[in-house]
Amino acid sequence: MGYHQIDPEDLSETEDYPCDRRGVSDATELHALHAATYEMVPGEDLSRSYHYHETREELFYVLDGTLHVETPDGEYVVSADEVFVAEPESPHRAHNPADADEPVTVLGVGAPPTDIARPYDPDT
User: Fold this and answer.
1) Minimal CB count within 10 Å: which of 40, 103, 108, 116?
2) DSSP string for 62-109
3) Could you report the per-residue pLDDT of 111-122, keeping only the tens digit for each?
4) Higher confidence at residue 79 or residue 31?
5) What residue spans define the domains of the chain?
6) What pLDDT digit, counting tens, does each position of 6-61 carry?
């Protein structure tokens, strides 16, 4: 059996990431699930690019602040204690706008963990 009690603040910040990302899955031996916490100050993105996944389902649970998610269908505004879900093949860019008044903290979960992000260009 395997159990883990983790304080994300004790985890190392992911290098070369556009915001403070702490990989919960990186600190455990999870094989079927990706999980991380993200803290974005105003002007920061949650991920490296506007993207989609071929098979991964992603869930963003907003712990504090307000998350904005750009999609081809428009922008979603996700408040604390709300969840945003992106199904496979659904482009999205989660961010904290530059004019935001506060940081936003998010728990991100996705499966399968091995489905890399595919860049999406909304102008093509």
Assistant:
1) 116
2) EEESEEEEEETTEEEEEETT-EEEE-TT--BEEE--TT-SS-EEEEEE
3) 998 899 999 999
4) 79
5) 13-116
6) 999 999 999 999 999 999 988 887 889 999 999 999 999 999 999 999 999 999 99
Q: What are phi and psi of 48, to 5 degrees?
A: -75, -20
Residue 1 in tokens: 């059996």
Burial annotation 43-68 (CB, 10 A radius, 16+ → b, else e): ebbbbeebbbbeebebebbbeebbbb
Report the alpha-carbon distance of residue 70 to residue 16 in Å, rounded.
Answer: 22
**CATH 2.60.120.10 matches 13-116:** yes
| pLDDT surpassing 80 at residue 1 | no
Nearest-angstrom CA–CA distance, 57 and 89: 9
- Going by C-alpha positions, the residue among 2, 115, 95, 1 that lies closest to residue 43 is 95
